[in-house]
Amino acid sequence: MTLLAWIILFTALGGALSAIAASAFLLAPASMRVRVLPHLVSFATGALLGAALLGLLPHAIEGVGIESIHGIGIALLAGLLLFFVLEKLVLWRHCHQEVCEGHVPHVPHHDHGHGGHAHDHGKARDAASASLILIGDGFHNVLDGVLIAAAFMTDVHLGIVTAIAVMTHEIPQEVGDLAILLQGGMSRAKAFTLNTITSITSVIGGIAAYFFLAEAQYVLPYALAIAASSFLYIAVADLIPGLHRRVDPGSGVKQFVFIMLGVAVIFVSHSLAH
């Protein structure tokens, strides 16, 4: 199978499977979702950290050699700052109304003759959030495709490990995205269809990166460093703060176990591949 075929296969497969898994997850009983989702987030955290620190960064350093390692450090720092800015622009992750409005919770309006207007305004905001989710998620998935392509162009096995890591963090995010689309007034069928379409936009990013990076091989190690920075940013800035909201010792132990399980899956996958 050609390298481009590997990239198309895994970007399409990752996007489609994450969207289908998220849809199936939403159909599960609420009690089951509450129990399973924290473990899924913990596992994704470990997989992202493992892929960044055990796979992408070592290959990036190997690609430039020890004499140019500072360039990889600069690329890593630039990537972290880039994703901070993108998140501030509400393009990196999905935007809940509470986040967009400074974590101010929605307070039900009492009806003093204007209840209809308040209700309509709330529906309009929910619809706007749904549209923003589709735009932001499409951009996010195109970027994921670029990262996966960069990994595949370095080593097919690294590409597979990177695609697995992307998939593990996409599933919890897709669950949240679907919930917002449904809250925005979409039917289940329409929400699933649009979410799946945005999920497979990663194929566009993968193909574009393949042709660009093929003409600029010297950029490849730095692309890997930026890929690592995105995984580190998601894990440290987005996922771990959510895990810290559970402060009881039992939850902490379970989180650590599932984080280590995520790291172990990446480590074993990468080790077997080499």
List segments where confidence is low: pLDDT < 50 over at least 5 consecutive residues: 91-114
Give Rg in angstroms: 20 Å
Integer tally of domains: 1
Class from helix and strand fractions: mainly alpha
SSE sequence, one letter per element: HHHHHHHHHH
Main sheet properties:
none
* Amount of helix: over 70%
Write structural notes for this entry:
The structure is a single chain. By secondary structure, the protein is an all-alpha fold. It has one domain. It is 83% helix and 0% strand. The chain contains ten helices and no strands. α1 packs antiparallel against α7 and α2 packs antiparallel against α6. The longest helix is centred in the middle third of the chain and has 40 residues. The chain is globular, with a radius of gyration of 20 Å.
Furnish the topology, listing elements before pairings:
Elements: H1 3-27, H2 30-64, H3 69-88, H4 97-100, H5 115-154, H6 156-183, H7 188-199, H8 202-215, H9 220-243, H10 249-273
Brief summary:
The chain has 274 residues and is mainly α. The chain has 10 helices and no strands.
Question: What features would you highlight for this structure?
Answer:
274 residues; mainly alpha
